[in-house]
Amino acid sequence: MTAKRFWPVAGVLLLIGIEALLFGYSYPFFSLALESKGIATWLIGLNASLAGAGILIFGPFLPALIDRLGLKFLVAAQFALSFLSFAAILAFDHLAVWFVARFVMGTCFSALWTTTEIWLNGVVDDRNRGRIVGASGTLYAACQFVGPLMLSATGSTGSLPLIAAMAPLAVGVAVALSIRSAVGETDEEETGSAATLRTALGLAGALIAAAFLTGVGETAMQSLLPLYGLAHGLSEAAASRLVAVFSLGEAILVAVLGWMADRYGRRLTLIGCAALAVVSTLALPFVMGRGLILEPVLFIAGGTVSGLYTLGIVLIGQDFRGQRLAVVSTGFAMAYSAGSVVGATPIGYLIDLFGVEALPLTVALGFLALMAFLVRPRRRIELAAED
């Protein structure tokens, strides 16, 4: 990689790390800080929900803002608004400010998740796309893990935790402004008309479905795995460990899958990833209580479920440029968020009706349907052309 291309890639990866750090930091910070003020638990939950709704509200406007402002200035503005949100809490310690600030920064963090993915796809070369995008997923997981550790050092009360959050956000503004805008690197195709953009979304239908199903499967597994473990006679500690192993797979295997996508072909890797997600989730009822087998199966399930999202990002960057890239990436992120919102609720209802085995069975059936769609003959565009 030339020096000219090194900083844009490294800089965007640094922005992704800062975003993940603050994401992991902000959720426990707000919960603990509001609890220390004696706020009702349902209000603390509402505060958290405000943060998660951002991309669903703001997402439809992202492509137009990217087109008008460019990624450099839009990403810098999102970091700046998050910085000002923490500053507002520091200056005006009022409950209404805590809620407005959480909504603003939650919206910014959700939008940053999408815009930095778009930016990274614009600055990487296609030969290394899978490796770098996969590595960014591992980087995100690692920095998100560091966030709560940082909070344990600062505490959740007083001005220190707010200042500690503002410092990396200020760095994010400076880094974003220092990177050459990706507009020139992603506009190999014309921005196109609304009809062209609708066509782009139609051509990415399989990837949008993958994003939605990943959101559903990942949220349901992380939320309901502890209950699944308890139903199989595990202790609370052992049931919680199921989620930890699942999350570890998410953090590590995405980088491996990215490398495999570049090495063995992206469509083949995506189909194989979906197949492994089906097999590993279906295997759960048969390996529960067998620790030496259970943990590798959960590890693979976590990595492949999360890997479907990462591979989708790789394929979008391969096949779309300019405004199409912005629109399809935004639709992809919104589909994932919608799946996360839907997530555990219907599967939890199915568990109430049919028992706990509805969890792995439902998730596996969803990915089986996706795999059947992916193996159909490709038409009009290679959603994931072989390298």
Automatic annotation (TrEMBL):
<dbReference type="Pfam" id="PF07690">
    <property type="entry name" value="MFS_1"/>
</dbReference>
<feature type="transmembrane region" description="Helical">
    <location>
        <begin position="293"/>
        <end position="316"/>
    </location>
</feature>
<feature type="transmembrane region" description="Helical">
    <location>
        <begin position="353"/>
        <end position="375"/>
    </location>
</feature>
<dbReference type="InterPro" id="IPR011701">
    <property type="entry name" value="MFS"/>
</dbReference>
<dbReference type="InterPro" id="IPR036259">
    <property type="entry name" value="MFS_trans_sf"/>
</dbReference>
<feature type="transmembrane region" description="Helical">
    <location>
        <begin position="163"/>
        <end position="183"/>
    </location>
</feature>
<dbReference type="InterPro" id="IPR020846">
    <property type="entry name" value="MFS_dom"/>
</dbReference>
<feature type="transmembrane region" description="Helical">
    <location>
        <begin position="325"/>
        <end position="347"/>
    </location>
</feature>
<feature type="transmembrane region" description="Helical">
    <location>
        <begin position="73"/>
        <end position="92"/>
    </location>
</feature>
<keyword id="KW-1133">Transmembrane helix</keyword>
<keyword id="KW-0472">Membrane</keyword>
<dbReference type="InterPro" id="IPR005829">
    <property type="entry name" value="Sugar_transporter_CS"/>
</dbReference>
<feature type="transmembrane region" description="Helical">
    <location>
        <begin position="98"/>
        <end position="120"/>
    </location>
</feature>
<feature type="domain" description="Major facilitator superfamily (MFS) profile">
    <location>
        <begin position="203"/>
        <end position="387"/>
    </location>
</feature>
<feature type="transmembrane region" description="Helical">
    <location>
        <begin position="195"/>
        <end position="217"/>
    </location>
</feature>
<keyword id="KW-1003">Cell membrane</keyword>
<dbReference type="InterPro" id="IPR047200">
    <property type="entry name" value="MFS_YcaD-like"/>
</dbReference>
<feature type="transmembrane region" description="Helical">
    <location>
        <begin position="7"/>
        <end position="27"/>
    </location>
</feature>
<feature type="transmembrane region" description="Helical">
    <location>
        <begin position="39"/>
        <end position="61"/>
    </location>
</feature>
<keyword id="KW-0813">Transport</keyword>
<keyword id="KW-0812">Transmembrane</keyword>
<feature type="transmembrane region" description="Helical">
    <location>
        <begin position="268"/>
        <end position="287"/>
    </location>
</feature>
<feature type="transmembrane region" description="Helical">
    <location>
        <begin position="132"/>
        <end position="151"/>
    </location>
</feature>
<protein>
    <submittedName>
        <fullName>MFS family permease</fullName>
    </submittedName>
</protein>
<feature type="transmembrane region" description="Helical">
    <location>
        <begin position="237"/>
        <end position="261"/>
    </location>
</feature>
